[in-house]
Amino acid sequence: MATIVVQIEINATIEKVWEIISDIDNEPKFWKGTKSVKTLSKEGDTVKREITIAFRDQKCLQEIQLTPNKEINAKFTKGILDGTKIITLTPKDNIVIVKTSWDIKLTGMMNMFTAIIKSHIKSGTEQAMKSIKEEIEK
Description:
CATH class: Alpha Beta
Shape: globular
Strand order of the largest sheet: 1-7-6-5-4-3-2
Helix content: 25-40%
Order of helices and strands: EHHEEEEEEH
Number of domains: 1
CATH superfamily: START domain
Number of helices: 3
Structural class: alpha+beta
Largest sheet: 7 strands, antiparallel
Radius of gyration: 15 Å
Distance between the termini: 36 Å
Protein backbone atom coordinates (compact mmCIF):
# COMPACT_ATOMS: atom_id res chain seq x y z
CA MET A 1 0.00 0.00 0.00
CA ALA A 2 1.10 3.55 -0.68
CA THR A 3 0.40 5.94 2.16
CA ILE A 4 0.28 9.62 1.27
CA VAL A 5 -0.63 12.51 3.56
CA VAL A 6 -0.92 16.12 2.40
CA GLN A 7 -2.34 19.00 4.40
CA ILE A 8 -2.98 22.68 3.85
CA GLU A 9 -4.32 25.59 5.89
CA ILE A 10 -7.26 27.54 4.48
CA ASN A 11 -8.29 30.97 5.74
CA ALA A 12 -12.06 30.44 5.91
CA THR A 13 -14.85 29.11 8.08
CA ILE A 14 -15.35 25.37 8.27
CA GLU A 15 -18.77 25.81 6.65
CA LYS A 16 -17.23 27.53 3.61
CA VAL A 17 -14.53 24.86 3.26
CA TRP A 18 -17.14 22.09 3.61
CA GLU A 19 -19.37 23.74 1.00
CA ILE A 20 -16.62 23.44 -1.63
CA ILE A 21 -15.05 20.13 -0.57
CA SER A 22 -18.32 18.24 -0.09
CA ASP A 23 -19.49 19.10 -3.62
CA ILE A 24 -18.12 15.77 -4.81
CA ASP A 25 -19.69 16.12 -8.27
CA ASN A 26 -17.24 18.99 -8.79
CA GLU A 27 -14.20 16.82 -7.99
CA PRO A 28 -12.72 16.84 -11.54
CA LYS A 29 -12.47 20.67 -11.32
CA PHE A 30 -9.83 20.38 -8.58
CA TRP A 31 -8.52 16.80 -8.76
CA LYS A 32 -6.85 16.42 -12.17
CA GLY A 33 -6.46 12.66 -11.60
CA THR A 34 -10.26 12.37 -11.66
CA LYS A 35 -11.54 12.79 -15.21
CA SER A 36 -15.25 12.29 -14.53
CA VAL A 37 -17.72 11.19 -11.85
CA LYS A 38 -21.12 9.57 -12.10
CA THR A 39 -23.32 9.14 -9.03
CA LEU A 40 -24.97 5.71 -9.00
CA SER A 41 -26.93 6.09 -5.75
CA LYS A 42 -27.26 8.35 -2.75
CA GLU A 43 -28.69 7.33 0.59
CA GLY A 44 -28.37 9.91 3.35
CA ASP A 45 -24.68 10.82 3.63
CA THR A 46 -23.52 7.76 1.65
CA VAL A 47 -22.82 8.10 -2.08
CA LYS A 48 -21.96 5.26 -4.43
CA ARG A 49 -20.40 6.38 -7.68
CA GLU A 50 -18.28 5.50 -10.67
CA ILE A 51 -15.22 7.62 -11.37
CA THR A 52 -12.95 7.66 -14.37
CA ILE A 53 -9.35 8.29 -13.37
CA ALA A 54 -6.63 9.77 -15.56
CA PHE A 55 -4.49 6.63 -15.25
CA ARG A 56 -5.34 4.85 -18.51
CA ASP A 57 -8.95 6.17 -18.32
CA GLN A 58 -9.75 3.42 -15.84
CA LYS A 59 -13.19 3.27 -14.22
CA CYS A 60 -13.40 2.65 -10.46
CA LEU A 61 -16.31 2.29 -8.09
CA GLN A 62 -16.30 4.26 -4.85
CA GLU A 63 -18.43 4.39 -1.76
CA ILE A 64 -18.22 7.77 -0.08
CA GLN A 65 -19.27 8.55 3.47
CA LEU A 66 -19.81 12.26 4.13
CA THR A 67 -19.59 13.46 7.74
CA PRO A 68 -20.64 17.14 7.52
CA ASN A 69 -17.96 19.69 8.44
CA LYS A 70 -15.59 16.86 9.45
CA GLU A 71 -14.69 14.21 6.88
CA ILE A 72 -15.10 12.69 3.43
CA ASN A 73 -14.18 9.01 3.42
CA ALA A 74 -13.91 7.59 -0.11
CA LYS A 75 -13.39 3.85 -0.33
CA PHE A 76 -12.46 2.31 -3.67
CA THR A 77 -14.65 -0.79 -3.99
CA LYS A 78 -13.91 -2.00 -7.53
CA GLY A 79 -11.42 -1.24 -10.26
CA ILE A 80 -7.68 -0.68 -10.64
CA LEU A 81 -7.44 1.17 -7.28
CA ASP A 82 -7.94 -0.44 -3.88
CA GLY A 83 -7.94 1.51 -0.63
CA THR A 84 -9.14 4.85 0.67
CA LYS A 85 -8.85 8.60 0.27
CA ILE A 86 -9.92 10.44 3.42
CA ILE A 87 -10.23 14.22 3.62
CA THR A 88 -10.53 15.63 7.13
CA LEU A 89 -11.30 19.17 8.26
CA THR A 90 -9.95 20.52 11.54
CA PRO A 91 -10.88 24.05 12.62
CA LYS A 92 -8.15 26.00 14.41
CA ASP A 93 -8.53 29.67 15.33
CA ASN A 94 -9.58 31.40 12.08
CA ILE A 95 -8.34 28.70 9.73
CA VAL A 96 -9.27 25.18 8.70
CA ILE A 97 -6.62 22.50 8.35
CA VAL A 98 -7.54 20.25 5.44
CA LYS A 99 -5.74 16.91 5.40
CA THR A 100 -5.96 14.33 2.62
CA SER A 101 -4.76 10.83 3.52
CA TRP A 102 -4.43 8.09 0.94
CA ASP A 103 -3.92 4.42 1.71
CA ILE A 104 -3.98 3.00 -1.78
CA LYS A 105 -2.60 0.35 -4.10
CA LEU A 106 -3.09 -0.80 -7.64
CA THR A 107 -4.94 -4.09 -7.99
CA GLY A 108 -4.00 -7.31 -9.74
CA MET A 109 -0.96 -7.39 -11.96
CA MET A 110 -0.67 -3.59 -11.75
CA ASN A 111 0.18 -3.83 -8.02
CA MET A 112 3.89 -3.81 -8.89
CA PHE A 113 3.51 -0.21 -10.11
CA THR A 114 2.00 1.14 -6.87
CA ALA A 115 5.30 2.70 -5.75
CA ILE A 116 5.70 4.39 -9.14
CA ILE A 117 2.29 6.08 -9.04
CA LYS A 118 2.73 7.22 -5.43
CA SER A 119 4.59 10.39 -6.47
CA HIS A 120 1.93 11.17 -9.10
CA ILE A 121 -0.85 10.84 -6.53
CA LYS A 122 1.07 12.99 -4.03
CA SER A 123 1.75 15.80 -6.52
CA GLY A 124 -1.84 15.62 -7.80
CA THR A 125 -3.12 15.89 -4.23
CA GLU A 126 -0.86 18.88 -3.50
CA GLN A 127 -2.10 20.60 -6.68
CA ALA A 128 -5.77 19.82 -5.86
CA MET A 129 -5.52 21.17 -2.34
CA LYS A 130 -3.79 24.33 -3.58
CA SER A 131 -6.59 24.84 -6.14
CA ILE A 132 -9.26 24.29 -3.46
CA LYS A 133 -7.51 26.81 -1.19
CA GLU A 134 -7.35 29.39 -4.00
CA GLU A 135 -11.05 28.86 -4.83
CA ILE A 136 -12.14 29.30 -1.22
CA GLU A 137 -9.89 32.26 -0.39
CA LYS A 138 -10.60 34.32 -3.51
